[in-house]
Amino acid sequence: MVRMGELAVSRVSGHLLASIGLGSCIGLVLVDDTRPLAGLAHIMLPVSNGDLESPIGKFADRAVPALLDEMTSIGASRSRLHAVLVGGAQMFSCGSSTGVDIGRRNEEATRDALAAAGITVRKTATGGSKGRTVRVHVATGLVTVKEPGADEFDLFATAAAVGRSR
Q1: Number of Cβ within a 10 Å radius of residue 120
Q2: How many CB atoms lie within 10 A of CB 145?
Q3: pTM value?
């Protein structure tokens, strides 16, 4: 379980990484295209503004480089990584154009940090007004999403996931 402000990586085929109840937070998934290597960060806010005391996964500007470092430390190559974003909902209506849409800002900051690192976002399940749960199947690189009142669905599958079951 990856909670708010946390990140986790794994190369153990039997592991399942998950974040439950992503509202305005972003669940950033990194999966290797050819091997069982996966990472998940539960990003709460766009920028750290110099805050080095909070958990490293709390802010997009710190979480993205940290997750990339963790992934390469377990054997991932940046050229084989795919990014998937989940969450970024606007959970509270504060009127239109108030600039408070933290979900959108979290997604933008995460995308910017990934672009700066040369990582392409392959799929998203972001925006809207509902929370989401993301699960990452390390063995196959399969990323699934569940919204309240809906069935879980496959959002992204790596080459390793094609033709394999969960």
Answers
A1: 10
A2: 22
A3: 0.93
